Amino acid sequence: MSSVYVLEPPTKGKVIVNTTYGPLDIELWPKEAPKAVRNFVQLCLEGYYDNTIFHRIIKGFLVQGGDPTATGFGGESIYGGTFSDEFHSRLRFNHRGLVACANAGTPHSNSSQFFFTLDRCDWLDKKNTIFGKVK
Fold it and tell me: What local confidence, expressed as pLDDT, does residue 2 receive?
C-alpha cells in the first residue's frame, strides 16, 4: 500500500491581487512565514502595491513585482528596513505558483518585492522565503 504525504501546510488567509490580466488569488502561510505574510498583507492594505507593475518576467521561471520604482532596486518593508529570511522544511520550490520574497541576493534582505514561480525552481530553496501560493 502506498502512502500520500501532504508537503504544503494548510493555508490561513488569502489576498486577491487585481491585475490588468485579471485577479490572482494568493493563499498565505502565516504560521510558516509570519514576518513575510505580515509584511505582504500590510503593504496590500496600505495600497503600497497599487499601480505598480510586474517589472521582471522570465518565461518558465518567475514573475516579479512589488517595486514602486519599477527598477528592481526599490521597495521597503513595514519593518523600517529589510527583514530576515524564514525558511521552513515543508516549503520547497518544487512546483509552479509559489509566492516568495524577492531579495537582494544576500541573506535577510527581504523588503516589499515578491515573485511567483512559473515552474519548479529547486535552486531557490533556502535562498528565498516562500509565504504562499497562487491558487
Answer: 56
Terminal CA-CA length for the chain? 30
Q: Do 40 and 65 meet the contact criterion of CB atoms below 8 Å apart?
A: no
Residues composing the chain: 135
Q: Is the pLDDT of residue 69 over 70?
A: yes
Of 77, 22, 21, 25, the residue nearest 48 (C-alpha): 77
Q: What is the DSSP letter of 34?
A: H
Give the neighbor-by-neighbor strand order of the sheet with 56-58: 14-19, 22-28, 130-134, 98-101, 114-117, 62-65, 56-58
Closest to 111 in 3D by CA, of 73, 81, 72: 81
Architecture of domain 14-134: Beta Barrel (2.40)
What's the mean per-residue pLDDT of the chain? Answer: 92
